[in-house]
């Protein structure tokens, strides 16, 4: 997982869980950790491919909302944002 802070926004990229460890809650734990690393951030942003159904379900379950998309070759990248307390 890679995090970048830009003022009060956290940009999350490269959240990857090894295939043999998927479905064990590691993605959820990593997202919760990312949300807590910068306590003064106001939101966290990330994106995933439109066909990444498991990722999309996870992000929505954890309170991320889709806020746009961009074309990347022949598919779309879906952008998500979550306000932080």
TrEMBL record:
Tell me yes or no: is Transferase among this UniProt entry's keywords. Answer: yes
Q: Does the keyword Transferase apply?
A: yes
One GO molecular-function annotation for this sequence? Answer: acyltransferase activity, transferring groups other than amino-acyl groups
Keyword line:
Transferase
Identify the Gene3D superfamilies for this entry. Answer: 3.40.630.30
What PROSITE patterns does the annotation carry? GNAT
| Domain N-acetyltransferase as annotated: residue spans | 1-85
This one is known as: Acetyltransferase (GNAT) family protein
Q: Which organism is it from?
A: Actinomyces ruminicola
Taxonomic lineage of this organism? Bacteria, Bacillati, Actinomycetota, Actinomycetes, Actinomycetales
């Amino acid at each position: 997982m890679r995090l970048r802070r830009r003022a009060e926004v956290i940009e999350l990229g490269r959240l990857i869980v090894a295939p043999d460890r998927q479905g064990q809650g590691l993605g959820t734990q990593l997202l919760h950790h990312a949300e807590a690393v910068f306590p003064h951030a106001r939101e966290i942003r990330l994106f995933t491919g439109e066909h990444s159904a498991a990722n999309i379900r996870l992000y929505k379950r954890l309170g991320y909302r889709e806020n746009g998309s961009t074309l990347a070759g022949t598919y779309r990248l879906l952008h998500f944002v979550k306000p932080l307390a």
